[in-house]
Amino acid sequence: MSSNRARLDVLVSECREIFVEAAIKLNGLSAWDFSCPCVVLDGRTDEIKAVVIGVGSIGNLVPTSAAIDSPEVKEWLRIATEKSPEVAFTEMLNGDEERAKRFNEAYERLIEERHAGIKGLWSTDDLSSFVSRSQAAFPKAISAVALLPGQKGQSHSIFTFESDITSLLT
C-alpha cells in the first residue's frame, strides 16, 4: 500500500496542471451537476495519462462492472487473490447450495460482461459512491480517481480522493 501511496503522490504532483484546469472549470460553476469536472489519473504504466472529464461520463473512461457488486463475486475475487482462482471456485461452489447458486449466476454475468468487452475496473456501487462524494465536495474540491498497478495478485488498484481547489487557484 505504501508504494501505491508514494506513486499516487508522484502522480498528483506531476499532473498538477490537470488539477488546476479542473479547479478553474469547477470554480466557474454555480451548481453541481453531472458535467462537473473530475480528474482521472492512470498510472498503471510508465506513461501517465491524466484527463479532466465530467463526473457523469467517468463510466465511459473507467470501465464499470455490475457483476462485481455481487457479494459472492467479491468473495471469489478476495479468495482468488489470496490463494488462487481454482481454490476460490472450489470454496464458492462447495458448501451452501444457495450461496453457490448466487455465485454461479453472478459469475455468469461477469463472463457475459467480459465477452461484451467490459473489463470493469470498479463496481457500479464504487462509481455511485464516487459521484455522491463529488456532489458532497462541490464547490470546494475536485474529485479524482487514480488507477495504479495492482499489488498481491491484483491487476490494478483504484484510489478516489478530493483535492481542495483553493491551493490550485492561487
Q: How would you portray this structure in words?
A:
The protein contains 7 helices and 6 strands. By secondary structure, it is an alpha/beta fold. It has 2 domains: 2-62 and 124-164, no CATH class; 65-115. The strands form 2 sheets. Strands 2-1-5-6 form a 4-stranded mixed sheet. Strands 3-4 form a two-stranded parallel ribbon. Strand 5 (141-149) and strand 6 (156-164) form a beta hairpin. Helix 4 packs across helix 5 and helix 4 crosses helix 6 (97-115). The longest helix is centred in the middle third of the chain and has 19 residues, at 97-115. It is elongated and about 60 Å long.
Summed up:
By secondary structure, this protein is an alpha/beta fold. The chain contains seven helices and six strands, in the order H-H-E-E-H-E-H-H-H-E-H-E-E.
Please state the average pLDDT score: 90
> How many DSSP E strands?
6
Overall geometry comes to elongated
Strand order of the largest sheet: 2-1-5-6
What order do the SSEs take from the amino end to the carboxyl end, as H and E? HHEEHEHHHEHEE
- As a whole number of angstroms, the C-alpha radius of gyration is 18 Å
Largest sheet: 4 strands, mixed
